[in-house]
Amino acid sequence: MRARPLFVTLLLAAAPIAAIGVACGSSSTVTYGVDAGAVDSGGDAPSVDGATGDGAADGASSDAAVADAKVDAPVAFDGGTPFPDASSVDPDAAAVDAGPPAFLLQPGSYVEGAKLPCAFVASYCGGQNRSPAFTWNHVPAGTQSFALVFHDETVNTNHWVLYDIPANVTSLAEAVQRGTRTPAAPAGAFQTQPPASFGDPTFGYFGSCPVAGAVIHDYTFTLYAEPVVHLAGMTAASTVDQVAQAAAAAPLDSALSRTTVSPTDAVPGGACSTGG
Fold it and tell me: Got the DSSP string for 69-99?
């Protein structure tokens, strides 16, 4: 038996070798292998052990086997797609619902967060004691009435509450009528007297008047959207604090507006210089 040529031995030994690669854009390992079943063993090609044919035939047969070999398609070891879509955004995903817009109270007589003009400061501090104008929108569903509370945040004192404002009202004009529990406008609403310590038993708005020498006072107007037409249990004898507590007890929502007054701008027993 003739010895097998060296280059045939090398080719036969190299045939099972596989190339290992990593697919672009994927963490899966991909194998590129030689399909052993693709080697042509038909015709007059010699057997692997060289029992038939001569050396040249052996060499030609081996060359043909290598030429006929094919490369397998990439296959991910983890069974996944070797080239997955890098995008994490689902184009069919539903848009996030931000919900209804916030209930909003807007002052019409002063700049939000700025000084309260003299027209809305208490008469005792040189003002005109007129209630400010407001508008509101984005009213919560189910609202049956509104309550507006004027509060001194600095000394935690309620000045005035206008309540049982009808649900179809969305604005308030300046200078709500004073001297009566039931002002002409807004029709159907009620208002309180100021605290007894203020020394004025008149039903109606009582403007800001900081204590002389005190720090700047922060005031809020809070509008409550109520689920009832009338605040329960409120009468002419109810104090401003009682009505304010009832308004804040269980509203559907509330909206806030802020303003300030300095004791140097509105001097008790003196003049007002906040402007307006």
Answer: --BPPP-BTTSS-SS-------TTSPPP---
**Under a CB-based contact definition with an 8 Å cutoff, are residues 211 and 268 in contact?**
yes
Same-domain pairing of 49 and 117: no
The closest alpha carbon to 241, from 207, 209, 197, 210, belongs to: 197
Does a structural domain hold residue 26?
yes
Task: Give me the long-range contacts of 122-125 (CB less than 8 A, separation at least 24).
Answer: 122/206, 122/207, 122/208, 122/209, 122/266, 123/207, 124/209, 124/268, 124/269, 125/207, 125/208, 125/209, 125/210, 125/266, 125/267, 125/268, 125/269, 125/270, 125/272
Residue 136 shares a structural domain with residue 255: yes
Angle at 71 between CA 65 and CA 75, to 5 degrees: 150
Q: Are residues 255 and 200 in the same domain?
A: yes
What distance in Å separates the CA atoms of residue 189 and residue 231, rounded to the nearest whole number? 11
* Residues present in the chain in total: 276
Tell me the three state secondary structure of residue 245: helix
- Does 28 fall in a domain? yes
**Chain segment 143-198, per-residue pLDDT in tens:** 999 999 999 999 999 999 999 999 999 999 999 999 999 999 999 999 999 999 99
Residue-number span of the structural domain to which 169 is assigned: 104-261
